[in-house]
Amino acid sequence: MARPPGRSRGAWAPLLWLLLAGPAACAASPGDDGAGPGGRGPRGRVRGDAGADEAVRRHDSSYGTFAGEFYDLRYLSEEGYPFPTAPPVDPFAKIKVDDCGKTKGCFRYGKPGCNAETCDYFLSYRIIGADVEFELSADTDGWVAVGFSSDRKMGGDDVMACVHDDNGRVRIQHFYNVGQWAKEIQRNPARDEEGVYENNRVTCRFKRPVNVPRDETIVDLHLSWYYLFAWGPAIQGSITRHDIDSPPTSERVVSIYKYEDIFMPSAAYQTFSSPFCLLLIVALTFYLLMGTP
Asked: Which residues cross the membrane (predicted)?
């Protein structure tokens, strides 16, 4: 077979060698570290520059470590594209009612035997160092609050409220009752705030100092106060009138140093627990069983 004109057999030898050697042979170049004396190393460095060689080695090593960690910290989507892993979110720790009356005080309002997830209203308190930790929960999509009052009436009260806003967040706000109107106070003693809206319930947890500087709108919790319990709807993150006309209150002043587990039946269960209603039920049952003469 005739050879292509202008090409000798020896001219094909270097090309054939390159094809057989593959990428390793192609990677070498006069600019590599293998260049002869006086040649230049990677990135145009003059050979023999030990400091520059060490800096490049550290750079290459650091880049390799970064690239490996970068890939390890990511996951591939179904399409095969890398996406950053979302940071873990600490879930809201459920309120423990087994500790009520032991390591914390509790108030429950609703059905007998209810807990923090089923009561119409739930509140707990306990001392942690120089603070009091409160936990509140209510069957509402708006707000839940506790007021500290010198009597059992609304007016002149220090109020802490957990408000569910339109963005799905639960914020802790401070109010002061002026008559029947709750005025928001910018000075908020709450700290370590957290809240959640789940299963049509607003639940929150926060701390506030036991002792505070003298202020008309913030009471000292080392003193005993009546507790006012309230909850209701919110419009665009602003509280509105509470759900029931006469919200429950503690029957006596509450001391944060005394842990009790107090249950208050809601209106539906108060009706059937009154002595008169029980007597009426017994009379009607006797009448139906015995019949008329």
From this structure: 272-290
Tokens (6 digits) for 12: 């094909």
∠ CA 180-181-186, nearest 5°, is 145
Q: Are 225 and 196 in contact (CB under 8 A)?
A: no
Query: Which residue shows structure tokens 């400091």?
Result: 51
pLDDT band of residue 213 (cuts 50, 70, 90) is confident
Average pLDDT estimate for 134-163: 95
d(CA 287, CA 293): 10
Closest CA to 230 of 217, 245, 247: 247
- Scanning the structure block, which residue is given the tokens 């006309």? 245
Q: Is the pTM of this model over 0.70?
A: no
Strands 170-178 and 158-164: antiparallel
- DSSP three-state, residue 181: strand
pLDDT digits (tens, 9 = 90+) for 244-285: 888 999 999 999 999 999 999 998 887 655 555 556 666 666
Cα–Cα distance, 64 to 260 (Å, whole number): 61
- CA neighbor of 132 nearest in space, from 248, 264, 254, 262: 254
Contacts with 45 (C-beta within 8 Å, 6 or more apart), sequence order: 52, 53, 56
Kindly state the helix (H) or strand (E) to which residue 184 belongs, with its residue range.
strand 181-184
Instruction: Give alpha helix (H) positions in the chain.
Output: 12-21, 23-27, 50-72, 267-273, 275-290
d(CA 256, CA 259): 7
Give 99-160 as a DSSP string.
TBTTTBEEEEEESTT--TTTSSEEEEEEEETTEEEEEEEES-SSEEEEEEESSSSSSS-EEE
